[in-house]
């Protein structure tokens, strides 16, 4: 089967199911596992400067969405050459990738008719279900069942007690945006309570003053699509740095890799482990980058 994935989390799942050799096209943001760098890119952001300040990126996204334009461009000639049998995309977030309708239109222009599979998980269980969905599409039901069982075992179960410490996971710096959807469940399964947002609900814009007043016991900065070095570079020079550093969460202020929370794929299980380690104040680097932010914390 010839597979094109336009979603980083879907690319991770395809590879985790042992179908890396079937992947013939990807988005520019599909960067894990590392060997997918050899796969041709068919989707790129339009006029997107990943190193621009958060406020500038946010303004660009809001302006483009306000006039109904797509933030991404699908390479129609490349799609025609690749002749995909299966194309993986999403309908959840226009900021994350192209939507199903945009993909269908591009495929018509390319003269190809792959099976288009749109993934729209909102809760943690639905993320694990996407593993089964992709497994069925690939004819790898057994591998998908085994992977899902491992992920569910690692994730644990059950809500945290009412007295559990509060945790704010911030998925954007300027303006600050609290991570919603499956992230509150990650926090709950790690033994905490998500501050400021509930499971299954969209991300919520807030202010650093509101975060300071709310006093979450642990704050994790994990901007969507940012690595730890990218986040810390911005924090050093950002106008919001003084506001961030006024926070004094007793369990610390940490910068974490975005894949712990933003990508609805297998590595969310690592996010549960990370939050649990930070809540118990165990020294942990985890499988991905995480570091305490200098100049903040107790």
Quick overview of this protein structure:
Helix content is 37%, strand content 17%.
Protein model, in words:
This protein is of the alpha/beta class and 298 residues long. It folds into 2 domains: 3-153, Nitrogenase molybdenum iron protein domain (Rossmann fold); 166-292, 3-Layer(aba) Sandwich (Rossmann fold). The chain is built from 11 helices and 13 strands. Strands 7, 8, 9, 10, 11, 12 and 13 form a 7-stranded mixed β-sheet that branches. Strand 7 (166-173) and strand 8 form a beta hairpin.
Question: At CATH's second level, what is the architecture of the largest domain?
Answer: 3-Layer(aba) Sandwich
Report how far the terminal alpha carbons are from each other: 53 Å
The total domain count is 2
* Unreliable stretches covering 5 or more consecutive residues: none
Order of helices and strands: EHEEHEHEHEHHEEHEEHEHHEHE
Helices and strands, with pairings:
Elements: E1 3-5, H1 8-16, E2 23-27, E3 41-45, H2 54-66, E4 72-74, H3 76-82, E5 86-90, H4 100-110, E6 115-119, H5 124-138, H6 141-155, E7 166-173, E8 176-178, H7 183-189, E9 193-194, E10 204-205, H8 208-214, E11 218-221, H9 228-237, H10 241-245, E12 253-256, H11 268-279, E13 290-292
Parallel strand pairs: 1-2, 1-5, 2-3, 5-6, 7-9, 7-11, 11-12
Antiparallel strand pairs: 3-4, 7-8, 8-10, 12-13
Helix pairs in contact: 3-4, 5-6, 6-11
Q: What are the main properties of this structure?
A:
Rossmann fold, six-stranded mixed beta sheet, globular, 37% helix, 298 residues, alpha/beta
